[in-house]
Specification:
- This protein is of the alpha+beta class.
- 22% of the residues lie in helices and 27% in strands.
- The chain has three domains: 93 residues, RNA-binding S4 domain (Structural Genomics Hypothetical 15.5 Kd Protein In mrcA-pckA Intergenic Region, Chain A); 82 residues, Pseudouridine synthase; 159 residues, Pseudouridine synthase, CATH 3.30.2350.
- Strands 8, 9, 10, 11, 12, 13, 16, 17, 18 and 19 form a ten-stranded mixed beta sheet that branches. Strands 1-2-7-4-5 form a five-stranded antiparallel beta sheet.
- A hairpin with a 3-residue loop joins strand 8 and strand 9.
Length: 358
């Protein structure tokens, strides 16, 4: 397990302000990058599952490799990936090199905040905004904006993994995101996502006339070995992660369909990959081929119509429309909804008018 392996998956930040150096046995010193303390009521759970639920963007396979390399410690002792976490266990991820710092620069970027209280906030992300710094986007992200917004609350630091984003959406996907303002809120909310207790509905415009009024797509999703920028379905079930998407037709426009997607799992590019898998690529999804004319006629007038739609919404037509969860402090069930943004709505209206005219 190399430093580069961990950094590729976001293992670049530990929970304490100062570096912690860990020694065990006759091994060389290790630097702690993450530390978690299991709750008093923690049930027995494999450590790889425990960590996968608390660290975004990392696979269980990668965690298992870390355990094989003695990089997973429980109460300062190395464990294998099948170790069962017990109440009050201290779980650490260590490496043989210090972490790579990533400074979060507060920036005065307007935010559309739907709800905010002492524990959390719900923000409506516009299309085109990167969620978190990294991979060449170190400024002008949602996290930079949140750092500025929360600057007056001194206990909140956006580079502390115990707080901040509970989940993410793609740069060109718009819609609702949940942000934790305390470690307790982050743990509670992350647990709801892990147990599939949240309610998330997306609006998507897809190519083709979807045959069934509603359905479920259950197919493993993993990174494409031929192109690391793409995700793909693995039919044998032995690769990738379990992914389940429920969909329902909202409106038909002939060559495209407006659908509602409900996520049961939250894999990278899940809706985009699953809809492509059943033959209904998202409209204008450049990465997965939706920016070609996949349905319709060969007439020049029709082609121009589609190109005009692409220009109106120069991104995949996907919007995180609703978000429901239980408040970590009050226990109240909260439910938020975001209107489809103008760029996507303009395309929907344009297709609706086209359907009426033919």
């Amino acid at each position: 397990m190399t430093k580069g392996d961990w950094e590729e998956n976001g293992y670049t930040r530990e929970e304490e302000e100062d570096e912690i150096v860990v020694n065990y046995g006759d091994e060389d010193p290790k630097f702690e990058h993450y530390r978690f303390v299991a709750d008093k009521g923690q049930g027995l759970l494999r450590v790889d599952k425990f960590l996968a639920a608390r660290i975004e963007g990392i696979s269980r396979n990668r965690i298992q490799q870390a355990a094989d390399a003695n990089c997973i410690l429980v109460n300062d002792n190395p464990v294998k990936s099948n170790y069962k976490v017990k109440p009050l266990d201290v779980i650490s991820i260590v490496m043989d090199r210090p972490r790579r710092e990533l400074e979060i620069i507060p920036q005065n970027i307007p935010l559309d905040i739907i709800h905010e209280d002492n524990s959390l906030l719900v923000v409506n992300k516009p299309p085109g905004m990167v969620v978190h710094p990294g991979h060449g986007n170190y400024t002008d992200t949602l996290v930079n904006a949140l750092a500025y917004h929360l600057n007056g609350e001194r206990e909140i630091k956006m580079d502390d993994p115990r707080m901040g984003l509970v989940h993410r959406i793609d740069k060109d996907t718009s819609g609702l995101l949940l942000v934790a303002k305390t470690p307790e809120a982050k743990t509670h909310l992350a647990g709801q996502f892990f147990r599939k207790e949240t309610k998330r509905l997306y609006a998507a415009l897809v190519w083709g006339d979807v045959t069934e009024e509603e359905g479920t797509i259950e197919a493993n999703i993993g990174r494409d070995p031929k192109d690391r920028m793409l995700m793909r379905v693995f039919m044998d079930g032995e690769q990738g992660k379990t992914a389940i998407t429920h969909y329902k037709v909202l409106e038909r426009f002939g060559y495209v369909t407006l659908v509602q997607c409900q996520l049961e799992t939250g894999r990278t590019h899940q809706i985009r990959v699953h809809m492509k898998h059943i033959g209904h690529t998202l409209f204008n999804d450049e990465r997965y081929g939706g920016d070609d004319i996949l349905r319709g006629t060969r007439f020049a007038k029709y082609k121009q119509f589609v190109y005009n739609c692409f220009a109106l919404c120069p991104r995949q037509c996907l919007h995180a429309q609703t978000l429901g969860f239980v408040h970590p402090e009050t226990g109240e069930e909260l439910y938020f909804e975001s209107e489809i943004p103008k760029d996507m709505q303009d395309v929907i209206d344009k297709w609706r008018n086209y359907r009426r005219s033919v």
